[in-house]
User: What shape does this take?
Amino acid sequence: MNRSSDGFYPAVEESSSVSGVSWGAIFAGAAAAAALSMILVLLGFGLGFSAVSPWAGEGVSAKGLGISTIVWLALTQIIASGMGGYIAGRLRVKWANMHGDEVYFRDTAHGFLAWCVATLVTAVLVVGSVSSVISGGVQAGASVAGGAASAMTQAAGTAAANTDSNQYGYYIDSLFRDDRPASVSDDAAHGAVARIFAQSLANGQLSAEDRTYLAQLVAQRTNLTQADAERRVDEIYARTQKALADAKVKAQQAADTAAKVAAWTSLWMFVSLLAGAFFASLAATFGGRRRDAVEYVEVETYTTTTPVR
Assistant: This one.
């Protein structure tokens, strides 16, 4: 090999002045990885929708669907990232007169960069669905932790809302209470009872005055004695409290489930992305070695010998 005037090889001078990053190969591998990832995700959606049934007891279960989704995401990352890394390593510029460890490092870096670009592109396309999964679990947990009391009040006051009562309806009704039998319509009586129940359930107990007044309303419409009417009020109020307590427990369980699903989804997505980065880097080293192993065929022409790649 010929030396230059200053004693260095021309190939060494050229390699020291040229960047070791082949951006064309990186973007080509990233485009292939992003496109293949999108195709596999759409295929997974199609398979998932075909396996789910709106009828109870039919189709795949929720647990089975979750496991299959995680497995499919991992396979999508491995296949798409591996393909993108291989293309990035196979299409990169050949580095001559360079140590094998440096070539190995550059190939690994090219695969990793191709995975980074593909991940960013894919994240832009699916960021809406990912954020909805995470925010759904967070909002569900926050709504139960911070608004359990308001949920109980709203559930108890549904009937009162249907009668166009406002938040001061309970206190307004208290202004016109009378110990004498009052002739009021059924709708008015139902509205008053609903407002009393809503206020009492929000406070956690039924006051003695409200209990007596409810018993009077019940006795007027059922021909029960005052004592029997009070026992009926106590029974119905206890059943209402139990129903609201059960609803609160179910809401808390649903919120806990949503939070756990969001947490596990985030963790498994992290594992899938990490596996994708590994396989992209590994495939790039394999593609780079295949690229370096290519033998060039020299074709003789009339003027010069040109290597054909």
